[in-house]
Write a structure and sequence with these properties.
Structural class: alpha/beta
Radius of gyration: 22 Å
Low-confidence stretches: none
Number of helices: 17
Strand content: 15-25%
Largest sheet: 6 strands, mixed
C-alpha cells in the first residue's frame, strides 16, 4: 500500500493529512499560529513560523499513521491565496508576508485603476483589483519599503514558500498565480505588459506550472527536519479554494461548493473563462487542465462567528453555539447581521464596508446574535448565487464545506436561504484531501483528478432539504439585507475614515 500527503497552509493553522490510495485518512495533524497586526489595516505572518508549524504537523502525522516515510509516494499543497512572500537571491525571506486579509493598499488599488483603467485590468485578469492581493501589496512595498523591494529575487505565494523549504525549488502554479492579479487568466501566463505598465520587473515572478506537475523532491535538509524520506516526489499544488473544491469532488460544471472557513467562498467550475463584467466575483484558473473557476468571495464568514464568540460570548463550544442558534426561530426575530467586519468583496468590492447588527431590541439575546450571524453569512453567499444566475452558470448540486458543513443548523440555514438541497462529503479536511489527490496524479497513482475524485469522494446520501415556508421568510429578509448596505454605504465610508 502506498500513501499520499496533503498539506494545507491556512490563515490560522497548517494541517497535514496522510491518506491511502482509496482516500482513507490514516492521520491528521494541525498546528496554529497568529496573524500579526503591527498597525491598523495590516495583516502579516512570518513564513518561518509557517515552516516550523508544517514541520511539527508532518512529524506528528507520520507518527500517528504508523507507516514508513518511504511509503509516501507524493506530497501536495493547498495554501491561503493572494498573499506575498518576498525572497532574496539566497532564498531567504526579506520581510514578513503580507496576507490576503491585509487592507493597507487602498491607495495602491486606486492608483492602479487611475493609471491603467478598470476595463484594462478586468480584460486581462478577469477580476476586480482588491486590497490583500499580491500586486497592490508589491507596489506598496516598492513605495514604502524601497530597501526591501531592491532585495527581491522572486515573489511567491504562501504555500510556495513551504514547497521551497521542502525542495529548494522556486515556482508557483496557475491557480495561485491567477489570484495575484498580475496574470493573464485566459492565456494562463504572466501578464507581462500589465506588469511593465505598473513599473514592476517581470523577472521577479516565478515559473508557473499546473498543480499536478512535479516541482521537485524532498531534500536531505528537509528530510532531516521533517522525518520525510529524501527524494519523495513533491508537486506544485494549488490555492486553497481549488484544492478544497477537489476535496469536495467539484471537478465539472454544475457542482457548486459553499465553503465557510475564515472567509467564505461560493465556487463553480467552468469550461471557459466566464466572468462578471461588473467584476463583483473572481475568475481564476482551475486545477483541472483547461478549466477555470468562478468564485464569490466573502472576507469574514466563519471569522464573524469566531469574532462574536471570542469578544462577546466568552468562547462557547461549537456545540453550544449550534444549540443556541437552533433555539431561535428563522429570521432571528427581526435581527439582521452584515458580515462586513473587514470590508467585503462579493458583491460590493468595498474595503470600507462595515459589519452591522440591525433590528436589536430588548427581546434579543446571545442566541439571536449567533443565529443572525449564521444567517448573515449565508445571505452573503446568496449575493454570489444571484450573480451566478445572471451569468448562466450551471448549478445542479450544492455542496457545503468547512464550518458550514459541520453544523446541522447552518446546513438548514443554507438550504432555506438558497432554496436548494445541500449535500456534504463524508470525508473531512477537504483542502488537504485535494492537495493529496493532485500529488497522487503527479506521482502516477491516479490517471487524472477526475478519476481520483470518482474513487475517493463520497457524498451524503440524503441532502438537507429546504422548507418552503422558511424559504419565503428568508426571501423577504434577503431583500432587507441587501438594502441595509445601500442605505448605509456613505455612513460606512465615513466611519472607515475615523
Amino acid at each position: 500500500m502506498s500513501y499520499l500527503m496533503g498539506i494545507d497552509l491556512g490563515t490560522s493553522s497548517v494541517k497535514t493529512v496522510i491518506i491511502n490510495e482509496s482516500g482513507l485518512i490514516k492521520s491528521t495533524a494541525q498546528s496554529s499560529y497568529d496573524i500579526l497586526i503591527p498597525e491598523k489595516d495590516y495583516a502579516e505572518q512570518e513564513p518561518e513560523i509557517w515552516w516550523n508549524a508544517t514541520v511539527h504537523t508532518i512529524q506528528r502525522a507520520l507518527k500517528e499513521a504508523e507507516i514508513q516515510s518511504n511509503e509516501i509516494k507524493g506530497i501536495g499543497f493547498s495554501g491561503q491565496m493572494h498573499g506575498m512572500v518576498l525572497i532574496d537571491k539566497n532564498n531567504n525571506v526579506i520581510r514578513p508576508a503580507i496576507i490576503w486579509s491585509d487592507q493597507r493598499t487602498k491607495n495602491e488599488v486606486k492608483e492602479i485603476y487611475t493609471k491603467l483603467g478598470k476595463d484594462y485590468i478586468g480584460s486581462v485578469t478577469l477580476n476586480h483589483l482588491s486590497t490583500g492581493f499580491q500586486t497592490p501589496s508589491l507596489l506598496w512595498i516598492k513605495k514604502h519599503e524601497p530597501a526591501s523591494y531592491q532585495k527581491i529575487y522572486k515573489v511567491l505565494l504562501p504555500k510556495d514558500y513551504i514547497r521551497l523549504k521542502m525542495t529548494g525549488e522556486l515556482g508557483t502554479d496557475v491557480t495561485d498565480a491567477s489570484a495575484t492579479l498580475a496574470f493573464d487568466t485566459k492565456r494562463r501566463i504572466w501578464a507581462e505588459e500589465l506588469i511593465l505598465k505598473l513599473g514592476l520587473d517581470p523577472e521577479i515572478f516565478p515559473i508557473v506550472k499546473n498543480p499536478t506537475d512535479v516541482a521537485g523532491e524532498v531534500t536531505i535538509e528537509a528530510a532531516k527536519e521533517t522525518g520525510l524520506h529524501k527524494g519523495t516526489l513533491v508537486v506544485y499544488g494549488g490555492g486553497d479554494q481549488p484544492m478544497q473544491a477537489i476535496g469536495n469532488g467539484i471537478v465539472t460544471p454544475g457542482q457548486i461548493s459553499l465553503t465557510i472557513g475564515t472567509g467564505g467562498v461560493v465556487y463553480s467550475v467552468t469550461k471557459e473563462p466566464k466572468f462578471d463584467v461588473d467584476l463583483r466575483t473572481h475568475t481564476f484558473c482551475n486545477a483541472v487542465p483547461e478549466t477555470w473557476n468562478i468564485m464569490g468571495a466573502n472576507l469574514a464568514s466563519g471569522l464573524s462567528l469566531s469574532w462574536l464568540n471570542k469578544n462577546i460570548l466568552s468562547n462557547l463550544s461549537y456545540e453550544e453555539l449550534n444549540i443556541l442558534a437552533d433555539s431561535v426561530t428563522s429570521g432571528s426575530e427581526g435581527l439582521i447581521f452584515l458580515p462586513y467586519l473587514i470590508g467585503e468583496r462579493t458583491p460590493h468590492m468595498d474595503p470600507e464596508a462595515r459589519g452591522t447588527f440591525l433590528g436589536l431590541t430588548l427581546k434579543h439575546n446571545k442566541a439571536h446574535l449567533i443565529r443572525s450571524v449564521m444567517e448573515g453569512v449565508v445571505f452573503a453567499f446568496r449575493d454570489s448565487i444571484e450573480i451566478f444566475k445572471n451569468l448562466n452558470v450551471k448549478m445542479d448540486k450544492f455542496i457545503a464545506s468547512g464550518g458550514g458543513a459541520r453544523s446541522d443548523i447552518w446546513l438548514k440555514i443554507q438550504a432555506n436561504i438558497l432554496n436548494q438541497e445541500i449535500y456534504k462529503v463524508n470525508q473531512p479536511e477537504q483542502a488537504c484531501i485535494g492537495a493529496a489527490i493532485v500529488a497522487g496524479v503527479g506521482a502516477g497513482v491516479y490517471d487524472s483528478i477526475e478519476i481520483a475524485c470518482s474513487k475517493i469522494i463520497k457524498f451524503s446520501d440524503e441532502p438537507v432539504q429546504p422548507d418552503q415556508k422558511t424559504v419565503s421568510l428568508y426571501n423577504e429578509t434577503y431583500e432587507l439585507y441587501k438594502e441595509i448596505y445601500q442605505q448605509n454605504k456613505a455612513i460606512f465610508h465615513h466611519l472607515a475614515g475615523k
